[in-house]
TrEMBL record:
GO biological process per UniProt: carbohydrate transport
Source organism of the structure: Halomonas urumqiensis
Superkingdom per UniProt: Bacteria
Any one Pfam family match given in the protein's UniProt record, by short name: OB_MalK
Lineage of source species: Bacteria, Pseudomonadati, Pseudomonadota, Gammaproteobacteria, Oceanospirillales
UniProt-recorded name of the protein: Sugar ABC transporter ATP-binding protein
Any one annotated GO CC term: ATP-binding cassette (ABC) transporter complex, substrate-binding subunit-containing
Keywords of this entry: ATP-binding, Nucleotide-binding, Transport
GO MF: ABC-type transporter activity; ATP binding; ATP hydrolysis activity
PANTHER family: ABC TRANSPORTER ATP-BINDING PROTEIN (PTHR43875:SF14), MALTODEXTRIN IMPORT ATP-BINDING PROTEIN MSMX (PTHR43875)
PROSITE patterns for the chain: ABC_TRANSPORTER_1 (PS00211), ABC_TRANSPORTER_2 (PS50893)
Length: 373
């Protein structure tokens, strides 16, 4: 039985269909992350699960029960949303225990629950303060604590860390991960932060225009995207899309990339990555997808024996990030981004010998942007 099941849920606001038959089953203890561009319907879906907005059609089941027409309080969920509001006149202790009081939890149990989450979120020393005496990050913890004081069937988090500065986000992210590992709770979590999605999720649902394009493990959505949208959405810097023509035949497919003022670049497509659909696309325009980390600087010590397909390009920009260097270089009609090691010494305008790991490349049909191989 799923902890949470969304069955063909639609939501219209007036004439706008914001959710288009979304179906999703979330296992007990699973950490599911929803990602997608702004306005694609993530919060609408969360509000529908929470019962804050009625659905237009479809059903929502929590722990096997149809809760579609139940109030938020009857659904046994706890939420932390982006615009969390604390009660300004109450102390932290009061804020955390208020919801429990409303649920008629006896005083001794309430106090124990407050101690437990204060300990968990390392905020025992803050319990007697008012929200106005807390930093933004501390307030965020209180909002989190208020949700975690309960043990609901499902937690819903809608961009809970988006108001925090970078350092605090990272700390809170680790804390949420630890909490999930320790408590094994079922969580649906919306974020627009790539790293949050990749590090926290058991599975990621990528949404666009009111529907789910792909649902899979972080590894699946990152390395095996269903289409160009998912491929381009996941990862930072984004996957490079390179216009190419597919040539050859099974066993010897290759990609021809026309680059202005240079000879055409021809990259053999790895045999083990061939798909039957490629045969029909010979002679057509395709899009080669290469992530920045699929490039590497040619290692001269290996005397050309390194893995990967060699290529060379004139570097236009070199951007050291500290941990590595992002290079911009022309490949085909546009520039691509390559991520190389921090010791790569190359000046703008110089040619650099690179290797590209074609075994990890992905291929799309240009016409409809779907995955070809
Ligand atoms: N209460 C509402 N009334 C009318 N339109 C809404 C309402 N809430 C959201 N929308 C619209 O639904 C779409 C999805 O919004 P939302 O779910 O907030 O997106 P996301 O959280 O993915 O950024 C947007 O076009 C938004 O304008
Ligand atoms: Mg939103």
């Amino acid at each position: 039985m799923s902890a949470l099941e969304i069955r063909k849920v639609r939501k219209d606001f007036g004439s706008e269909r914001v959710l288009k038959e979304v179906s999703l089953a979330i296992d007990s203890g699973e950490f599911l992350i929803l990602v997608g561009p702004s306005g694609c319907g993530k919060s609408t879906l969360m509000n529908a699960i929470a019962g804050l907005e009625p659905v237009t059609s479809g059903e929502i089941h929590i722990a096997g029960e149809d809760v579609t027409w139940r109030t938020p309080a009857e659904r046994d969920i706890a939420m932390v949303f982006q615009s969390y509001a604390l009660y300004p006149s109450m102390t932290v202790r009061g804020n955390i225990s208020f919801g429990l009081e409303m649920r008629k939890m006896p005083k001794a149990e309430r106090e124990a629950a407050v101690e437990r989450v204060a300990d968990l979120l390392q905020m025992s020393h803050l319990l007697d303060r008012k929200p106005s005496q807390l930093s933004g990050g501390q307030r965020q913890r209180v909002a989190m604590g208020r949700a975690l004081a309960r043990e609901p069937k499902v937690y819903l988090f809608d961009e809970p860390l988006s108001n925090l500065d970078a350092k605090l986000r990272v700390d809170m992210r680790t804390e949420i991960k630890k909490l999930h590992q320790r408590l094994g709770t079922t969580i649906v979590y919306v974020t627009h932060d790539q790293i949050e999605a990749m590090t926290l999720a058991d599975r990621i649902a990528v949404m666009r225009d009111g529907h789910i394009l792909q649902l899979g493990t972080p590894d699946e959505v990152y390395n095996d995207p269903v289409d160009m949208f998912v491929a381009g959405f996941m990862g930072s810097p984004s996957m490079n899309f390179i216009a190419a023509t597919l040539e050859g035949a099974p066993g010897r497919f290759q990609l021809r990339i026309v680059t202005p003022e240079e000879d055409d670049l021809v990259l053999p497509w790895p045999r083990q990555r061939e798909t039957p659909a490629m045969t029909e696309q010979v002679g057509r325009d395709v899009v080669l997808g290469l992530r920045p980390e699929h490039f590497s600087e040619e290692d001269e010590r290996l005397a050309g024996q390194a893995e990967g397909t060699p290529l060379s390009a004139r570097v236009s920009v070199s951007e050291p990030t500290g941990a590595d260097i992002l290079l911009r270089l022309p490949l085909g009609e546009r520039e691509v981004t390559a991520r190389v090691g921090p010791t790569c010494r190359v000046a703008p305008g110089e040619r650099l010998a690179l290797r590209v790991d074609m075994a990890r490349a992905v291929l799309f049909e240009q016409a409809n942007e779907t995955r070809l191989a």
